[in-house]
């Protein structure tokens, strides 16, 4: 029995669906009776065919992929667990956040930032840009749809998702399509490490994804665990709100000025890399950083043995771009501690023997990918870190129509590259599929879906995903 539903069609880009039997608002009473009977017997079967690619995640990467596909006339469906686009930016970041990198390295394909934005747009400006990006390409994700698992059945990708909208009737739905684009991001879940004694600490403990502003911490002693870009910026925000922050620097870290020699450090690095080998560029960056910031090791922030760019390319570890935190460390407004030995009821003991009382702890301990928790295919992504196994720039394509966008450890620049490649690749297969449908114009492709299997009565495509490059 067919069990296709068009209800989701109102939420997705047109024209998403094949011409399947649907329930619509123009039904006759007889039709309605039939539908009622059908929906009773179909309660265990809610299956939706998606004509174009299924994209999981409506962050910048999912939007970029959908836009590049749309530009080629290919519809897609984005499934997003949250209730908005760019949920990382809208729901999980602090108020004072600006793009860490200059805007020209952060714009998505096919649409530049509007004129007049500052070099480092605020998160509100970035979100507004993404909203108009989605509007421009008529991208309407299905919100409140959390993908629970996705697997390839030999012919199609079957994506099972739980509906998290309170008003939604059915809780689980299966989306079936030829292409699956993973766009759930490198930062899908907060990393909360087990630190000895953390359960004994009587103060507030929160991850940076729940931190909004230092306003709530005025005059409070706050320990920030982690010294990446977020940790350093949260310390500065706490200082600006008259809190007393301390930062844990467990490891080595590269701190670079955000601008050097009249240019953004990131832009300068990109330019120098055109002419010089990476190690030479690293030496230039470290020399200028030393002249501008002094010896950071003396402030408790020792540098790694490898240079900032080499370290980034080998381990993905991003250098901190300083926006004023170092000056606050130098002035003593922010204290620096080494690794934590254990938490106590009122504070923490550190490996150098010091101990201190705190009112709150902010874990700036980063994020991780969640792909292994829902993607059943084990070839493309590493189960260890949830990132593509193939190194950059080859991690965007898997087998059988599986793709990844935004997993390059190169931020939004990497996203743009992936999205364009994926759209080019799918376009070739799409054209073959469309051509074969034209040839069979008198027998439209009909896909019969029963509760647990899907069969094509007409072959819609002879395209072999893996032979298209
Ligand atoms: C504080 C901070 C500042 C940053 N600044 C910059 C910067 O200046 N420049 C830069 O290039 N990069 C920056 N980044 C990196 C940034 O994460 C990416 O550039 C960008 O957000 C990545 O977009 P994305 O779409 O790949 O992932 P995300 O933005 O994380 O979007 C992924 C989406 O997938 C959804 N999702 C996850 N799992 C599921 C599921 N199972 N089912 C359905 N939906 C799911 C999520 O809800 C989310 O909406 C920053 C990151 C952080 C944390």
Write the layout of secondary structure elements.
Layout: H1 29-41, E1 47-49, E2 54-56, H2 60-71, E3 77-80, H3 87-91, H4 123-136, E4 142-143, E5 145-152, E6 157-163, E7 172-177, E8 180-182, E9 189-190, E10 204-207, E11 221-225, H5 229-240, E12 244-248, E13 255-257, E14 259-260, E15 263-264, H6 265-273, H7 278-293, H8 308-315, E16 320-322, H9 325-330, E17 335-337, E18 340-343, E19 347-350, E20 355-357, E21 360-363, E22 367-368, H10 371-374, E23 402-404, H11 411-439, E24 447-449, E25 454-456
Parallel strand pairs: 1-7, 2-3, 2-8, 3-4, 8-23, 10-21, 11-12, 11-21, 12-17, 13-16
Antiparallel strand pairs: 5-6, 6-7, 9-22, 14-15, 18-19, 19-20, 24-25
The protein binds flavin-adenine dinucleotide (FAD).
């Amino acid at each position: 029995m067919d069990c296709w539903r068009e209800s989701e069609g109102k939420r997705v880009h047109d024209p998403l669906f094949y011409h399947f039997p649907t329930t619509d608002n123009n039904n006759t009473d007889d039709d309605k009776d039939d539908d009622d009977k059908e929906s009773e017997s179909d309660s265990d079967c809610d299956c939706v065919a998606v004509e174009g690619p299924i994209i999981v995640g409506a962050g910048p990467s999912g939007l970029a992929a959908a836009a590049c596909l749309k530009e080629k006339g290919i519809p897609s469906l984005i499934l997003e667990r949250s209730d908005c686009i760019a949920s990382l930016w809208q729901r999980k970041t602090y108020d004072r956040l600006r793009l860490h990198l200059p805007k020209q390295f952060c714009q998505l394909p096919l649409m530049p930032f509007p004129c007049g934005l500052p070099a480092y747009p605020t998160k509100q400006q970035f979100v507004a840009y993404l909203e108009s990006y989605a509007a421009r390409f008529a991208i309407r994700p299905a919100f409140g749809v959390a993908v629970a698992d996705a697997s390839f059945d030999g012919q199609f990708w079957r994506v099972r998702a739980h509906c998290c909208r309170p008003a939604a009737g059915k809780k689980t739905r299966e989306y079936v399509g030829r292409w699956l684009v993973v766009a759930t991001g490198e930062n899908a879940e907060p990393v909360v490490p087990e630190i000895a004694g953390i359960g004994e600490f009587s103060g507030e403990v929160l991850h940076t994804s729940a931190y909004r502003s230092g306003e709530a911490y005025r005059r409070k002693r706050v320990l920030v665990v982690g010294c990446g870009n977020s940790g350093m910026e949260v310390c500065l925000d706490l200082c600006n709100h008259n809190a007393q922050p301390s930062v844990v620097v467990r490891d080595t870290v590269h701190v670079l000025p955000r601008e050097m020699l009249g240019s953004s450090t990131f832009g300068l690095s990109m330019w120098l890399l055109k002419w010089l080998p990476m190690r030479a560029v690293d030496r230039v960056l470290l020399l200028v950083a030393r002249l501008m910031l002094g010896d950071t090791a003396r402030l408790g922030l020792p540098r790694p043995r490898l240079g900032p760019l080499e370290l980034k390319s080998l381990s993905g570890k991003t250098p901190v771009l300083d926006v004023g935190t170092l000056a606050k460390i130098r002035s003593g407004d922010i204290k620096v501690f080494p690794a934590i030995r254990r938490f106590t009821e009122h504070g923490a003991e550190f490996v150098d023997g010091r101990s201190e009382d705190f009112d709150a702890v902010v874990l700036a301990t980063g994020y991780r990918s969640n792909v292994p928790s829902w993607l059943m295919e084990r070839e493309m992504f590493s189960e260890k870190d949830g990132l593509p196994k193939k190194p950059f720039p080859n991690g965007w394509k898997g087998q059988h129509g599986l793709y990844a966008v935004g997993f390059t450890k190169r931020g939004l620049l990497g996203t743009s590259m992936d999205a364009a490649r994926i759209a080019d690749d799918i376009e070739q297969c799409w054209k073959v599929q469309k051509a074969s449908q034209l040839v069979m114009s008198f027998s439209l492709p009909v896909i019969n879906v029963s509760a647990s299997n899907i069969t094509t009565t007409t072959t819609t495509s002879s395209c072999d995903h893996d032979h298209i490059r």
